[in-house]
Amino acid sequence: LTFYEASIGSKGQLPQEAAKRVVAVALVIIIGGGAAGMMAAIAAAGAGHKVCIYEKNEKLGKKIYITGKGRCNVTNACDTEELFQNVVHNAKFLYSSFYAFTNTDIMDLIEKHGCPLKTERGNRVFPVSDKSSDVIHALTAALRKLGVEMELHEEVADVLAEDGHVTGVRLKRGQKVVFADAVIVTTGGLS
Prior knowledge:
The chain is an alpha/beta fold. It is built from six helices and ten strands; from the N terminus they run H-E-H-E-E-H-H-H-E-E-H-E-E-E-E-E.
């Protein structure tokens, strides 16, 4: 989806130059409120979408709490080329991802939202507090600032589609249907 900001004139019409551009705001549903779900929501909301995360657990980022022995190893502070040297299989697959949102980008995002970071031996990056909960709080602050809705204790039963296009989701509790323009599934693996 492409987004353009456009101002509406006094007669309720788009200026001629803006009328040539597509103006669209989509409702994006994220299934899963772990690290990937929170980052997908931040990216979608940052692009101007209305976003809602549906998480079956009682809190977002539940697995983040246990990473790095409860300290949350956020990323590695080495340069991007060095990151590629340490990818065991098919590093080329990650090029566009690593360059679109770098390790310094994630560090900046987390610090900007209230969680100072430190770099330790091996360029491993942790919160200064050594508490993974501070990383979760920073990501949650970013979500709130962007206006992302967060529905906890809400499991999605089905992704709905019609004519080959996603139309929304059906929630497990009450079989409620929520329509959306896009659905991103970030449920991770079984662990």
